[in-house]
Amino acid sequence: MSEHEDREFPLGAARAGFVASVRRKATAMRALLPEVSQTPKRDELRRKLHALGSGARSLHLDALERAVSDMMGRLDRTPREGVLVAADVEVLERTLAELPALAWGREDVRVTAERAIVAFGEPQFLGDLGPNVDCERTLDRAVALARARELSIDALVIDADSDGAFELCADLLDDEVTQDLTVIVVGAFGMPGDDARFIALGARFVVNKPLDRIGLKELLDEALAPPIAVSPFGAELGTPSLEELSTRLGEELRRGLLAVGRAADREKSVPLGEGVEVYAALWGAIARIREVVAAKTKGELTFTDPGPYGAVAMAPSLELDTERSMRNRSTRRGMGSEDVPLAGRRILVVDDDPGVTWFMADLLRSQGCLVDEALDGEQGLLRAYAAAPELVISDILMPKLDGPSLCRALGRDVVLQHTPVVLLSWKEDLMQRVRELGSSASAFLRKESDVRAVVARVQEVLRPRARLEARFVAGGPVRGRLDGFTVSAFVDMVLRFRGDVCISIRDAAFLYELEIRGGAPRSAVRSSGDGTVLSGMNAFRALLGVSSGRFSVEDRNSAIEDELQGSFRELSMVIVSERRAVIHALSEDRLVEAAAMDVHDERLRDVLRGMPARTGVIAGRILAGASPRELLLRDRIDPSELLDVLLHLARRGAILSVRTAEGHELSVPITLPHFDLAEETRLSRRPPPVAADSSETPDPDGMAVL
Q: What residues make up the domain containing 211?
């Protein structure tokens, strides 16, 4: 290692940032000692020690955790109304002075690293990375893979020209523990296509040598920035003229081609020769766009020039693509689709054809699933809000809300943001078109698929969740990245397998700790590097909007003071309802109406601490009082980008309400029909519907707000 070669394993960014903050936190606590020695009110010092100890425990700084535990024990041994004696104060002061050294295990180490990586390859393939990157270099594939599995690094950089580079990349991206790790491949790539095999494996970045410290920092910043939902394309096209459409698509083409690993790569020469492959691909896309334009204008616009290559609109077969994908995945190590248990899975089936709904629901119930049904997209969304399914299976074309729109609505939600969706259709070409248009669906399925194909596709989509569940079943501490789960979905999963645990989540700015006892939350604490601490419901509210970061789950049965009362669902119900109301007020077609907003300044500032610079500018304008309407019309912010930022803030609870210029409240709580979510009802298999059943509507009685 570059600086700390005697460490047991390299520090990740979260761990390094925490260690760097210990000296400052200890200084702040030492300043409290004179007051603490004269008064029985030691709650502030105890809270700060608790936060520090929680962080040390979650990051496995054992010596630091023991020292903090000893100090808390010394405080707790003194009677509540008693005064600390001089000897106790002296011990506390001496221990506080030793905390920075204990964090490292030695006194002379200074923390400077912001990122931790492992570099696989010859020592010279990465130059001097400076003090801000903690780099362990190795030529041993087994060592590199072991470091990656420890989940203590931010990225693994591979020299593509080293022996075993391709095999290591494949191992990392096939391993259920490391498949989400940021993998950066750096190579000479002298021949066209040399880099393609690494891209095909799924490496996050594949770039040309040399990669300097600035280039590496750019890649790491992009990979590790807290995610904000990003629209697959730019602003909506609306109803442009052909001239305007060509300009917009040209900009999109430029944006796509310049999305390389680092800015310097944009100047690299590309040996294309006559460029037949590129021109053919371009004109194939143009031919498809022409088809869309002709169809949208009902034949009013047609094109006579076939282009220099007589281009034909070509698109890969959806069935071939998905089948190949499933075959490739099935060859990976770890859990196969057939190993994914379906019993007890909560699944929602949405289709306006009662026959299809019955078939899918009955099939899944025969596998032991708990199935809810809906006959249109709008009702399906409400049922999803009520039941929080693990998977949604939806028709593409439905009344009120179609399948792709249902995908988008789920993707904006504070609870259901990462819920996988399988879209159904009788028409393969329709599924292909929907996928080409950037649908966020996890998979597609033809309605005429046989029983085995349906079950296999459901298992395939649920496999990532099942892998994580298997780690909880195996026992012991479980660590990883939260990516792909909201906090609500993650805690729900943990509670299925563990009753007494401590869940720690570290995002870009804060460390959260949720203590679970008897299957219910009992304590929540949020701490930051500057020593500030939130606890109780305030910390719980802040935790609910988190959707990225590293987690640690450890069994814990020690007694704690109950700060929270109720189940996780009971505690989060009102919070989720408030945030959903704001999210619904921020749909694309209502942004212009949103002339005023109430924001929670402190929460917004907290969110700003972890946002990328570009989106942070927009959030800063909102903090300064700008409304969505003002940002859209006066500041000319791209609507899709603005909406992404607003939804991110809404999920974090930073936006409290949205109003029109006339003061009309847009963020109205959503009213849900009463749904029977009893397990026996959702497991019950029913006879197929008769034709008259197609007009059935849900019982409107028993309305409840969620």
A: 115-224
| Lookup result for tokens 């505690």 | 571
236 inside domain: no
What percent of the chain has a predicted confidence (pLDDT) above 90?
30
The domain total for the chain is 5
- Contact between residue 539 and residue 564 where contact means Cβ atoms under 8 Å apart: no
Please provide the DSSP assignment of 323-347 as one string: HHHHHHHHTSSS--GGG---TT-EE
- In which band, very low, low, confident or very high, does the pLDDT at 334 lie, cut at 50, 70 and 90? very low
* 201 and 122 assigned to the same domain: yes
- The alpha-helical segments, DSSP class H, found in 5-42 are 13-30, 33-36
Q: By the 8 A CB rule, do 180 and 483 touch?
A: yes
| CA dist list (Å): 167 to 141, 158, 177, 185 | 9, 11, 16, 12
The per-residue pLDDT for range 175-194, each reduced to its tens digit, is 777 887 889 999 988 776 67
Neighbours of 589 (CB within 10 A): 6
* Tens-digit pLDDT profile for residues 393-422: 998 888 888 888 899 999 999 999 999 999
Q: In what order do the strands lie in the sheet with 443-446?
A: 370-374, 346-350, 391-395, 421-425, 443-446
**Whose CA is closest to 648, among 552, 551, 540, 548?**
548
Contact 52, 527 (CB under 8 A): yes
Centre a 10 Å sphere on the Cβ of residue 149 and count the other Cβ atoms it contains.
Answer: 14
- Sorted by sequence, the CB contacts under 8 Å of residue 634 that are 6+ apart come out as none
The yes-or-no verdict on residue 653 having pLDDT over 90 is yes
pLDDT in tens, 294-316: 878 877 787 776 665 444 444 33
Specify the pLDDT at position 509: 83
The last residue of a domain, from among 165, 189, 224? 224
Report the sign of the C-alpha dihedral through residues 435, 437, 441, 446, in that order.
negative
Q: For residue 550, how far is the Cα from the chain centroid?
A: 11
- What are the distances in angstroms from CA 572 to CA 9, 309, 492, 566? 37, 59, 12, 10
> Which CATH number does the domain housing residue 93 bear?
1.20.120
For tokens 């990516």, the residue is: 483
Residue 50: alpha-carbon gap to chain centroid: 28
3-state secondary structure of 553: strand
Query: ∠ CA 542-543-545 to the nearest 5 degrees?
Result: 80
User: Given a cut of 80, is residue 423 above it in pLDDT?
Assistant: yes
Instruction: Please say which residue of 199, 224, 249 terminates a domain.
Output: 224
For residue range 480-513, what is the model confidence (pLDDT) as tens digits?
888 788 999 999 999 999 989 999 998 878 899 9
Spatial neighbors of 28 by CB under 8 A, at least 6 apart, are 48, 531
What does the alpha-carbon distance between residue 635 and residue 623 come to, in Å, rounded to a whole number? Answer: 15
State mean pLDDT over 367-387: 93
